[in-house]
Amino acid sequence: MAEPVTLAVIGAGNRGGDVYAGWCLAHPDQARVVAVADPREARRNLVGDRHQIPPERRFARWEDLLAGPRLADGVIIATPDQLHVEPALRAMELGYDILLEKPIAPTREEVLKVARAAERLQDRGGSVTVAHVLRYTPFFSTLKGLLDAGRIGHVVSIQYTENIGYWHFAHSYVRGNWRREATSSPMILAKSCHDLDMLRWLVGRPWVRLASFGSLLHFRPEHAPPGAPERCIDGCPASESCPFDAVRFYVEALADSTGWPVSVITHDLSREGRLQALREGPYGRCVYRSDNDVVDHQVVSLEFAGGVTAAFTVCAFTEENTRTLKLMGTHGEIRGHLEKGELEVRSFVPQGTRGSGREVLHVPAGAGHAGGDDGLMAAFVGRLRARKEGRVPEEALTSLAESLESHLMAFAAEASRREGRVVEAG
């Protein structure tokens, strides 16, 4: 049996340390982590211990991991949004195959800088795969197959909704790492470049123009309940009726959970450890008294080449945490629900002897972005193995070149939202 490929991980948080490195623990015959870089000693050593990484390959700075010759076949870059560009550029100089967490970078100029460097990387071997995990899900790959097979004729219009979930939005975009644009990126980019990429992939044509609207409507100081303290743990009079009470969510509702999102707030998962995190860290703050500034709802209306249109909605105020969509074509429509793994095909032309034009497909959802995390890692490791064995790897389904347009759509959506105008592609 061939030796597993080797990986270095830069950024040992939830995505890099738990999800991507965790895949290697579940598939030790396929890949192993041999180096890690993270400025947080606890996270660095947690991943280091899990993967039995020697002390000399546990780095506090990504610069040190990438200072010398290559330490692995590939590198995973899962640093915060604002810290993607420099390690990516350096890893490209060394000829690494790179798995880069989305978004590529928080600004248009930086994204284009990385894209230009990736074009040069191809001449020296190596590649950049963007972690647009939705393309690797059984759900969306099945949907794409239905469209390519002409099951609803030619696509005319798409309604697509990202239901973030009220609790998920509060965790990540009010209290969490993506709450402020200056320290992360616009919400439409940080959360929904996945979905803009999916729209582009499903339509199969470039976008032409778009318009966008949205704001930070609810999570503002003026909406705090009367008498609400700075932290939920300090005796809020509205705790029983507030959907966002941190004590009820992290300590009570998730009492038996040891994974995300609880693993993000503290390493001490005992009740007292969680309460201490809520007393001291950002996840215990009242959602109306945080320092968040990213929008909590946004819509984007898009036109693609050939006149195809799409309406995309991303919203914090949903009970479900999933994607739902409706695709309308010249010969039928498809309705989908990602979390249920359900695709309903409705044909305008009766099918079979009973005249029914309706078919419901059930696609296994899987864990981790409906199976997308596993699919992404399997594909990335497969390309590393091909290169290691002297074969030319297939281009990644989410290569940087393929993922670029979704980011340009996100930046255009932000320009439209802020400036109140239709933005043309180009």
Blueprint (SSEs and pairs):
Elements: E1 5-10, H1 14-26, E2 31-37, H2 41-50, E3 58-59, H3 62-65, E4 74-77, H4 85-93, E5 97-100, H5 108-121, E6 127-130, H6 138-148, E7 155-163, H7 166-174, H8 187-190, H9 193-203, E8 207-215, H10 246-253, H11 262-265, H12 271-280, E9 297-304, E10 309-315, E11 322-329, E12 332-337, E13 342-351, E14 356-362, H13 372-388, H14 400-419, E15 423-424
Parallel strand pairs: 1-2, 1-4, 2-3, 4-5, 5-6, 7-10
Antiparallel strand pairs: 7-11, 8-9, 8-15, 9-10, 11-12, 12-13, 13-14
Helix pairs in contact: 1-2, 4-5, 5-14, 9-14, 10-12
Can you describe what's shown?
34% of the residues lie in helices and 22% in strands. The protein has 426 residues and is an alpha/beta fold. The strands form 2 sheets. A 9-stranded mixed sheet has the order 14-13-12-11-7-10-9-8-15, covered by helices on one side. The longest helix has 20 residues, at 400-419. The N and C termini lie far apart (49 Å).
